[in-house]
Amino acid sequence: MAKFLDTTGISYHLEQTIKNANERLVLISPYLKINDRIKELLEDKDSLKIDIRVIYGKNELQPEENNWLKSMKSIRTSFCKNLHAKCYMNEKESLITSMNLYEFSQANNNEMGIYVSKDTDQQLYTDIDTEAKRLIRISEEIIVSVEKVVQTDNGQKKYYKEPKVQHKGYCIRCSKPIALNPVAPFCKDCFSIWAQYEKEEFPEKFCHICGKEERTSMIKPACPSCFKANKNKLEFSI
Fold it and tell me: 114-123, pLDDT tens digit by residue?
């Protein structure tokens, strides 16, 4: 049965949701400024190579936040336009709340939330999981670059980004270069067409990873050889 949470309960269950993640962790929050305690928990999960997805949508990352995310190997960050939802979940439990993943909210605001366990509310958990996956699909994955600090002649700090080559994938319908993400293998235009019907096994034309002409689908976006080579490196729907 779903459980109502106040501000203290949300903070507790947010920590527990991160701690209890053994396979995957999804953090959806419009504003992204993570406090030291949450960073510590995420660093522990990153060291265990847990699949971590962070979706945000309201502000540019500050240099300190940017560099911290860059140092994490298992965290993938995506930007979702017009995002207002706040949801934190692992493979066993989820938390729907008014609380942003933002240190001021956790310290000062009066919040409410609902905690859901997959064991006791399987359908509700599945519905939340389905919507979280949809948000991931429509989000644009951000390739984080390190921002270095340079001391100028007048003593001020200046930030600049080191360039980073972004590995591209391909839209499985039109072969347009896009971010490599097997969970979201369409370009924006093709996804808007696919979303009208949402048939996961509808036949498409190209491999998302190598771009070669191949019979694929939303649920199987890669050719057999690319899937075999990347199944332990990338997240697939199956």
Answer: 999 999 999 9
